[in-house]
Amino acid sequence: MPATIRDVARASGVHISTVSRTFSAPHLVNPETRGRVLACAEELGYRPNRAARALITGRTHNIGLIIADIANPFFPPLIKAAESQARQRDYHVFVADTNEDPIAEEELVHALAKQVDGVLLCSPRMSNSLIEQLSREVPLVVINRQVAGLPCVTMDVGQGTRAAMEHLLDAGHRRIALLSGPRGSWTSREIRRAAGVAVRAGGGELTVLGPNPPTETGGSALAEQVRRAGVTAVLAYNDLMAIGLIEGLDALGLRVPQDVSVVGIDDITLSRLTRPKLTTVATPTAAAGRTAVDMLLQHDSVATRGARGGGRSGTIDDRRTTAQVMLRTELVIRDSTAAAPADGRHRPDAEVVAPGPHRLAGPGRPTVATGGVVAS
Amino acid sequence: MPATIRDVARASGVHISTVSRTFSAPHLVNPETRGRVLACAEELGYRPNRAARALITGRTHNIGLIIADIANPFFPPLIKAAESQARQRDYHVFVADTNEDPIAEEELVHALAKQVDGVLLCSPRMSNSLIEQLSREVPLVVINRQVAGLPCVTMDVGQGTRAAMEHLLDAGHRRIALLSGPRGSWTSREIRRAAGVAVRAGGGELTVLGPNPPTETGGSALAEQVRRAGVTAVLAYNDLMAIGLIEGLDALGLRVPQDVSVVGIDDITLSRLTRPKLTTVATPTAAAGRTAVDMLLQHDSVATRGARGGGRSGTIDDRRTTAQVMLRTELVIRDSTAAAPADGRHRPDAEVVAPGPHRLAGPGRPTVATGGVVAS
DNA sequence: CGCGATGCTGCAAACCTTTGCAGCCGAAGT
DNA sequence: ACTTCGGCTGCAAAGGTTTGCAGCATCGCG
User: Fold this and answer.
1) Are both B58-155+285-326 and B157-283+329-371 of the same fold?
2) Which of B103, B114, B266, B359 to mutate to test the interface with A (most CBs of A within 10 A)?
3) Region Disordered: what ranges (chains A, B) (predicted)?
């Protein structure tokens, strides 16, 4: 039913190759002919079949974006940035969600492999070795994880964690908890490592709780454990968990930040909407999306993996060029952190009280401390 | 570089057609042969090229999902539901975001057309006629809009709006504002229509503000206008706008719900996290996603639009079977609505006061009123 | 007038699969 | 012993496009 290139050729009295060129190499065809072809194409509602084209050129002009959890507000800015960057280069982005499931991740890479020119693997939960293996099937750029030999873009959560911990230590906190993220998360490991050294260096004591699902309910479920741990400050794997934790503490009668200081990571927009507004480590998600698309497109425009185009030669050599980019993070201080309680512990028996002054806190400019930046 | 069916055939000493059948019709090939072929395929890391397969079968086992704004928390549950439903039927979902841009919408449909078996068009902003035209290019299911002759799944926002307005009128509100949504939104028109008749029937007066971008900033930008309108209650096009409006009113010194009652639409999870918790019309987004996938798959499994499979006959006749489903909505009463102020107007000069009792409101079961349900 | 260059178009192979048809072989039925 | 049948496999066309190569005029130049 849909018009093919042949229909157009017949209608305009030229060979199919001329029709093809009209679309893919207009300068090679006589303007007059081209006009006639275009008219017929328009008339018949012809659109090139991208699948057929991909079959021979080896390039689909699509890129796949695999996301751990689309419901996490952390991702949409990244997705949008990737899409707009891709659109500028005449590419389309197909997003797929894995529900934090490593199996689904692998399956999706396979499914996408032949339908896209490359895949952006965002916050993968699978093993490094599997990622490496999959990268032989389709060009991969990894986001939020470092895998040796593959192009990666990560956030410098290590620096962000240090900044957060120093902020808390400066405020007099000594007993600090870390709510870690999901099993398999590179970011979570980085945070944990950095938190460990930073707290120790500051003479504090770190309690690690987890692994946990990186969601709001994952956070609220930890309120009881946080109370029992007797800490005065908490760093959460992400904002969602931090917000959930605040909810949970609230239900337990513990006030934030008077009794417990809470800091999140990501700086999702939601973190500015809750009460108290969340102190958090801002990660440049949009930049990550853009960068990842750039790396992917540069990486495979260099060596077109075309069907005919004479397969790329160096399988090992071009690893030299695979970049690993790490993006700067920033600590944004808002209303969920305060000086440690005088007795050095949160009060175990908080009475019910009208909400504290943070409710009235003005919209003043948030304090900002910068983290590090690295690239290689 | 990637292994093709021919490589496997050579390696296992059979014809390519046997390899093909090993995967697509296993019962037609001798178990012994099949075993050998599978072994070789595994060995070589062979994966069928879905693009090539699609070229001949006419079915890609992909479905496209076009979304107005992926950053709107309304959509993720719909996306996830669609994905899981599709996965059960061995389909993959590709999500694309249009940034509320009608042009991008059209372009995406074209881009997806040949790479998917059908497209779910969610909250489209383009014209009905264009949608109808595009539906001749690829099977379409429309979500959040009714288009004659096309399968649609919508939410009964009309009933939800009526319930919300009755709730407000019962609470003594008479001057009510409606924050309408983006231009081109079917839902927004439905809400406006229903709001008009409901408020008039209740002896109230409706002020319509809009159209507006359906975002948090879109809502907060309207605070000033809402104040000037002198209304005591507001229904917003969606929760995001409602939450933004509450922020904006707060900045103006107007308290919700004491001075102004606010109700949203959608019941996104965020609406339970803000203070005050939002009264809102819950829409069954997950059900919508599932239903839409079902309608699409049923619709085109009936008549395979295969290349060879003898094109479908009835172009008009099968319209009889195109269903239009409308899903039930529910009014969820939380803390952002209250009785109208005694003087019938919000106080124009609110003093700064410690936050009201809604801060302490327990997690009690929300009151629920049911809306209608329709199907044809 | 001849020659090469230039601009445009047609030809046909190739991309990777699926699938209708035909062929082969052994077994079962008559 | 001859047919029939069934199970399995091979053959080749088809699907829609791109692209290197070759052919053909036309044109400019010497």
Assistant:
1) yes
2) B114
3) 338-376
Report if CB A49 to strand C is under 7 Å. no
For residue B55, the chain A residues in CB contact (below 8 A) are 49, 51-52, 55
Q: If one looks up domain A157-284+329-352+366-375 in CATH, what number appears?
A: 3.40.50.2300
So what's the pLDDT on residue B15?
A: 94
- Label residue B167 by pLDDT band (50, 70, 90): very high
> Which protein residue has its CA closest to C1' of C20?
B308
pLDDT digits (tens, 9 = 90+) for B263-320: 999 999 989 888 899 999 999 999 999 999 999 998 655 334 433 333 333 333 344 4
Pairing between β-strand A119-122 and β-strand A140-143 as defined by DSSP bridges? parallel
B chain contacts of residue A96, beta-carbon cutoff 8 Å: 83, 92-95
Q: Report yes or no: A269 and A334 within 8 Å, Cβ to Cβ.
A: no
- With beta carbons less than 8 A apart as the criterion, state whether B242 and B250 touch: no
Helix then strand count (H, E) for chain B reads 13, 14
Instruction: DSSP for A154-172, please give it.
Output: EE-HHHHHHHHHHHHHHTT
Please give the CATH architecture assigned to the domain spanning B5-48. Orthogonal Bundle (1.10)
Distance from residue A44's CA to nucleotide C18's C1', rounded to whole Å: 28
Fold for the domain defined by B58-155+285-326:
Rossmann fold (3.40.50)
**CB atoms near residue A301 (< 10 Å):** 11
* Distance, Å, A88 CA → D21 C1': 35
Closest CA to B191 of B230, B154, B232, B151: B154
Which residue of chain B comes nearest to A363, CA vs CA?
B251
Closest A-chain CA to B51 = A51
Indicate the domain borders of chain B.
5-48, 58-155+285-326, 157-283+329-371
> Which of A3-12, A26-35, A255-264, B366-375 comes out lowest in average pLDDT?
B366-375
Return the percentage of chain A with pLDDT > 90, whole number: 73
Q: Tell which CATH classification among 3.20.20.70, 3.40.50.2300, 3.30.230.10, 3.50.50.60 matches the domain B157-283+329-371.
A: 3.40.50.2300
Per the structure, the residue whose CA is closest to nucleotide C18 at C1' is B56
Q: Which string of b and e fits B212-242 if b means at least 16 CB within 10 Å?
A: bbbbbebbbbbbebbbebebbbbbbbbbbbb
Query: B315 CB contacts (<8 Å, ≥6 apart)?
Result: none
∠ at Cα A367 (A363, A368), nearest 5°?
A: 130
The pLDDT assigned to A349 comes to 45
Rounded Cα–Cα distance for residues A23 and A12 (Å): 14
Q: Which residue of A has its CA nearest to B97?
A: A80
